[in-house]
Amino acid sequence: MTVTWEDLGWERLAEGVGRCRLPGWDCTVGLVVGAGTALVVDAGSSLAEGAALRAAVRTLAGRDVTHLALTHPHFDHVLGAPAFAGAEVYGAVGLDVVFRHEREALRRDAVEHGVPAEEAEAAVHALLPPAHLVSGEWTLDLGGGRQALLANVGPGHTAHDLAVLVPGSPEVVFCGDLAEESGEPQAGPDAVPSRWPDALDRLLALGGEDALYVPGHGAVVDAAFVRRQRDALAARFGVS
Protein backbone atom coordinates (compact mmCIF):
# COMPACT_ATOMS: atom_id res chain seq x y z
CA MET A 1 0.00 0.00 0.00
CA THR A 2 1.32 3.43 -0.95
CA VAL A 3 1.94 5.76 1.98
CA THR A 4 0.85 9.35 1.34
CA TRP A 5 2.23 12.55 2.84
CA GLU A 6 -0.99 12.92 4.83
CA ASP A 7 -0.67 9.40 6.26
CA LEU A 8 2.49 10.50 8.05
CA GLY A 9 1.12 13.88 9.11
CA TRP A 10 2.84 15.88 6.36
CA GLU A 11 1.24 18.57 4.20
CA ARG A 12 1.91 18.29 0.46
CA LEU A 13 2.50 21.76 -1.02
CA ALA A 14 3.56 20.94 -4.59
CA GLU A 15 4.85 17.95 -6.53
CA GLY A 16 7.63 16.50 -4.38
CA VAL A 17 7.47 19.36 -1.88
CA GLY A 18 5.88 19.31 1.56
CA ARG A 19 6.23 20.11 5.21
CA CYS A 20 5.22 18.94 8.67
CA ARG A 21 4.46 20.88 11.80
CA LEU A 22 6.20 19.39 14.81
CA PRO A 23 4.57 19.17 18.23
CA GLY A 24 5.76 21.31 21.10
CA TRP A 25 6.71 24.56 19.39
CA ASP A 26 4.77 24.09 16.13
CA CYS A 27 8.05 24.25 14.25
CA THR A 28 7.91 23.57 10.50
CA VAL A 29 10.22 21.09 8.76
CA GLY A 30 10.28 21.06 4.95
CA LEU A 31 11.03 18.32 2.43
CA VAL A 32 12.02 18.64 -1.23
CA VAL A 33 12.35 15.39 -3.18
CA GLY A 34 14.58 15.20 -6.26
CA ALA A 35 15.88 12.35 -8.39
CA GLY A 36 17.80 10.23 -5.90
CA THR A 37 17.95 13.13 -3.44
CA ALA A 38 15.99 14.49 -0.51
CA LEU A 39 16.49 17.97 0.94
CA VAL A 40 15.18 18.59 4.46
CA VAL A 41 14.69 22.14 5.72
CA ASP A 42 15.38 22.33 9.47
CA ALA A 43 15.86 19.41 11.79
CA GLY A 44 13.70 19.57 14.90
CA SER A 45 14.53 20.13 18.55
CA SER A 46 16.25 16.91 19.64
CA LEU A 47 18.16 13.89 18.39
CA ALA A 48 15.03 11.76 18.75
CA GLU A 49 12.95 14.23 16.77
CA GLY A 50 15.62 14.39 14.07
CA ALA A 51 15.76 10.60 13.86
CA ALA A 52 11.97 10.39 13.52
CA LEU A 53 12.03 12.98 10.76
CA ARG A 54 14.76 11.09 8.93
CA ALA A 55 12.73 7.88 9.12
CA ALA A 56 9.62 9.65 7.82
CA VAL A 57 11.58 11.06 4.87
CA ARG A 58 12.86 7.59 3.98
CA THR A 59 9.26 6.41 3.80
CA LEU A 60 7.97 9.40 1.83
CA ALA A 61 10.90 9.84 -0.57
CA GLY A 62 12.06 6.24 -0.82
CA ARG A 63 15.62 7.33 -0.03
CA ASP A 64 17.72 8.76 2.76
CA VAL A 65 18.19 12.47 3.40
CA THR A 66 21.00 13.79 1.20
CA HIS A 67 20.84 17.53 2.00
CA LEU A 68 19.88 19.49 5.11
CA ALA A 69 19.36 23.27 5.18
CA LEU A 70 19.18 25.06 8.53
CA THR A 71 17.25 28.32 8.42
CA HIS A 72 18.67 29.82 11.62
CA PRO A 73 20.42 28.79 14.85
CA HIS A 74 17.54 28.31 17.30
CA PHE A 75 17.24 25.06 19.22
CA ASP A 76 13.85 24.01 17.83
CA HIS A 77 15.24 24.17 14.29
CA VAL A 78 18.76 22.73 14.68
CA LEU A 79 19.19 20.32 17.61
CA GLY A 80 17.97 17.39 15.52
CA ALA A 81 20.70 17.99 12.92
CA PRO A 82 23.19 15.39 14.25
CA ALA A 83 20.60 12.69 13.46
CA PHE A 84 21.15 13.39 9.74
CA ALA A 85 24.69 11.99 9.58
CA GLY A 86 25.91 11.73 6.00
CA ALA A 87 23.75 14.55 4.67
CA GLU A 88 25.34 17.69 3.19
CA VAL A 89 24.48 20.45 5.68
CA TYR A 90 23.98 24.09 4.67
CA GLY A 91 23.52 27.25 6.71
CA ALA A 92 24.04 30.98 6.49
CA VAL A 93 27.56 32.32 6.98
CA GLY A 94 28.16 32.68 10.70
CA LEU A 95 26.11 29.65 11.70
CA ASP A 96 29.39 27.79 12.14
CA VAL A 97 30.57 30.37 14.66
CA VAL A 98 27.35 30.00 16.67
CA PHE A 99 27.69 26.22 16.73
CA ARG A 100 31.33 26.42 17.85
CA HIS A 101 31.22 29.24 20.38
CA GLU A 102 27.61 29.64 21.58
CA ARG A 103 26.76 26.04 22.38
CA GLU A 104 26.09 26.69 26.04
CA ALA A 105 23.59 29.44 25.21
CA LEU A 106 21.90 27.08 22.74
CA ARG A 107 21.68 24.33 25.36
CA ARG A 108 20.38 26.71 28.01
CA ASP A 109 17.71 28.11 25.68
CA ALA A 110 16.50 24.59 24.87
CA VAL A 111 16.25 23.63 28.54
CA GLU A 112 14.50 26.88 29.46
CA HIS A 113 11.89 26.12 26.79
CA GLY A 114 11.24 22.62 28.09
CA VAL A 115 13.70 20.27 26.38
CA PRO A 116 14.90 17.75 29.00
CA ALA A 117 18.40 18.68 30.13
CA GLU A 118 19.96 15.35 29.14
CA GLU A 119 18.43 15.51 25.64
CA ALA A 120 19.60 19.09 25.13
CA GLU A 121 23.11 18.23 26.34
CA ALA A 122 23.38 15.21 24.04
CA ALA A 123 22.20 17.16 20.99
CA VAL A 124 24.48 20.13 21.60
CA HIS A 125 27.45 17.83 22.21
CA ALA A 126 26.85 16.09 18.85
CA LEU A 127 26.17 19.28 16.88
CA LEU A 128 28.69 20.02 14.13
CA PRO A 129 29.09 23.27 12.13
CA PRO A 130 27.53 23.16 8.64
CA ALA A 131 29.98 22.06 5.94
CA HIS A 132 28.50 24.54 3.45
CA LEU A 133 28.07 28.22 4.35
CA VAL A 134 25.88 30.45 2.19
CA SER A 135 26.83 34.12 1.89
CA GLY A 136 24.56 35.08 -1.01
CA GLU A 137 22.63 32.51 -3.04
CA TRP A 138 23.43 28.85 -3.63
CA THR A 139 21.55 26.69 -6.13
CA LEU A 140 21.28 23.00 -5.33
CA ASP A 141 20.75 20.63 -8.24
CA LEU A 142 18.62 17.85 -6.77
CA GLY A 143 18.34 15.91 -10.02
CA GLY A 144 15.45 15.24 -12.35
CA GLY A 145 15.08 18.93 -13.15
CA ARG A 146 14.53 19.77 -9.48
CA GLN A 147 16.46 22.68 -7.99
CA ALA A 148 16.38 24.55 -4.70
CA LEU A 149 17.77 28.03 -4.15
CA LEU A 150 19.32 28.70 -0.75
CA ALA A 151 19.34 32.43 -0.06
CA ASN A 152 21.04 34.25 2.79
CA VAL A 153 18.40 36.99 3.06
CA GLY A 154 19.10 38.12 6.62
CA PRO A 155 19.91 39.35 9.09
CA GLY A 156 16.50 39.74 10.64
CA HIS A 157 15.05 37.20 13.04
CA THR A 158 18.68 36.30 13.75
CA ALA A 159 22.02 37.33 12.29
CA HIS A 160 22.06 34.11 10.21
CA ASP A 161 18.76 33.68 8.36
CA LEU A 162 18.56 31.33 5.38
CA ALA A 163 15.51 30.93 3.12
CA VAL A 164 14.88 28.08 0.69
CA LEU A 165 13.06 28.73 -2.60
CA VAL A 166 11.77 25.76 -4.57
CA PRO A 167 10.81 26.68 -8.16
CA GLY A 168 7.71 25.06 -9.58
CA SER A 169 3.99 25.54 -9.86
CA PRO A 170 3.46 26.91 -7.34
CA GLU A 171 6.83 28.14 -6.12
CA VAL A 172 7.38 27.37 -2.44
CA VAL A 173 9.46 29.53 -0.09
CA PHE A 174 10.56 28.14 3.27
CA CYS A 175 10.99 31.28 5.36
CA GLY A 176 12.34 30.02 8.66
CA ASP A 177 11.25 32.37 11.45
CA LEU A 178 11.57 35.48 9.31
CA ALA A 179 7.81 35.00 9.01
CA GLU A 180 5.47 33.43 11.57
CA GLU A 181 1.76 32.81 11.24
CA SER A 182 0.80 31.28 14.58
CA GLY A 183 1.88 34.31 16.58
CA GLU A 184 3.75 37.59 16.46
CA PRO A 185 7.30 37.18 15.13
CA GLN A 186 9.67 36.64 18.03
CA ALA A 187 12.55 39.11 18.38
CA GLY A 188 15.00 37.70 20.89
CA PRO A 189 18.39 39.06 21.91
CA ASP A 190 19.96 37.75 18.69
CA ALA A 191 17.46 39.49 16.39
CA VAL A 192 18.50 42.39 14.15
CA PRO A 193 15.27 44.42 14.08
CA SER A 194 16.63 47.27 11.96
CA ARG A 195 17.31 44.82 9.10
CA TRP A 196 14.29 42.54 9.43
CA PRO A 197 11.97 44.45 7.03
CA ASP A 198 14.74 44.43 4.40
CA ALA A 199 15.07 40.66 4.81
CA LEU A 200 11.36 40.22 4.14
CA ASP A 201 11.62 42.50 1.10
CA ARG A 202 14.31 40.17 -0.27
CA LEU A 203 12.16 37.16 0.54
CA LEU A 204 9.23 38.64 -1.40
CA ALA A 205 11.46 39.53 -4.32
CA LEU A 206 12.65 35.93 -4.50
CA GLY A 207 9.23 34.31 -4.29
CA GLY A 208 7.01 36.83 -6.01
CA GLU A 209 3.28 37.34 -5.66
CA ASP A 210 2.10 33.81 -6.45
CA ALA A 211 4.41 31.73 -4.25
CA LEU A 212 3.43 29.78 -1.18
CA TYR A 213 5.32 31.12 1.84
CA VAL A 214 5.98 28.60 4.60
CA PRO A 215 6.61 30.28 7.97
CA GLY A 216 8.77 28.71 10.63
CA HIS A 217 5.64 28.37 12.78
CA GLY A 218 2.02 28.26 11.66
CA ALA A 219 0.00 27.84 8.49
CA VAL A 220 1.22 28.45 4.95
CA VAL A 221 0.63 32.07 3.87
CA ASP A 222 0.71 34.23 0.75
CA ALA A 223 2.76 37.24 -0.29
CA ALA A 224 0.16 39.65 1.07
CA PHE A 225 0.51 38.15 4.55
CA VAL A 226 4.33 38.43 4.42
CA ARG A 227 4.03 42.03 3.27
CA ARG A 228 1.66 42.89 6.13
CA GLN A 229 4.02 41.28 8.60
CA ARG A 230 6.91 43.20 7.08
CA ASP A 231 5.05 46.50 7.55
CA ALA A 232 4.06 45.58 11.11
CA LEU A 233 7.68 44.80 11.99
CA ALA A 234 8.83 48.10 10.47
CA ALA A 235 6.28 49.97 12.56
CA ARG A 236 7.11 47.94 15.68
CA PHE A 237 10.82 48.69 15.46
CA GLY A 238 10.61 52.17 13.95
CA VAL A 239 12.33 51.39 10.66
CA SER A 240 11.22 51.96 7.07
From TrEMBL:
InterPro entries documented for this protein: Metallo-B-lactamas, NDM-1-like, RibonucZ/Hydroxyglut_hydro
The species is: Streptomyces bauhiniae
Name-wise, this protein is MBL fold metallo-hydrolase
List the molecular function annotations (GO) for this entry.
hydrolase activity
User: Is Hydrolase one of the keywords?
Assistant: yes
Sorted alphabetically, which keywords does the UniProt record give? Hydrolase
Q: Which domain of life is it from?
A: Bacteria
**For the Metallo-beta-lactamase domain, which residue ranges apply?**
26-217
